[in-house]
Amino acid sequence: MSKRIAVRLPDDIVEFVDGLVEGGQAASRDVVVERALDRERRRDVAARTPSIVAGVDADHDLANLGQLAVHTRLDCLD
Predict the structure, then answer these.
(1) What is the Cα gyration radius of the chain?
(2) Distance, first Cα to last Cα, the chain
(3) Which of 27, 29, 42, 56 could form a disulfide with 60 if both were Cys (CB 3.0 to 4.6 A apart)?
(4) DSSP string over the chain
(5) 26 located within any domain
(6) What pLDDT shows up at residue 32?
(7) pLDDT above 70: percentage of residues in the chain
(8) By residue range, what is the domain housing residue 23?
(9) Is 5 contained in some domain?
């Protein structure tokens, strides 16, 4: 299921999106926007997950993973 929405973007962003489509890196503007928003959603989940996991009891298998992840940089998701 999908919904149509209207979004205003600065000219330079639209030119960038159109360049991706014209260069064959994306099938359409829709695909570029969907990929960007999906990446942002994954980044948001990744940023919140370590804090959730870090709050797990120390006896839990994921407790150490949570502590490690809290200190992991997320710039690799860009």
Answers:
(1) 18
(2) 27
(3) 56
(4) ----------HHHHHHHHHHHHTTS-SSHHHHHHHHHHHHHHHHHHHHHHHHHHTS-TTSTTHHHHHHHHT---GGG-
(5) yes
(6) 97
(7) 63
(8) 11-73
(9) no
Which residue carries 């990929």 as its tokens? 35
Please name the residues in contact with 33: beta carbons below 8 A apart, sequence gap of 6 or more: 7, 17
Higher per-residue confidence, 38 vs 63: 38
The pLDDT of residue 48 is: 76
Q: Which two tokens stand for residue 64?
A: 């150490």
Look at residue 1 and tell me if it is in a domain: no
User: Does residue 22 fall inside a structural domain?
Assistant: yes
Measured CA to CA, the distance from residue 76 to residue 4 in angstroms comes to 31
If you search the block for the tokens 């928003």, which residue do you land on? 37
Place of tokens 């064959």: 24
Number of independent structural domains in the chain? 1
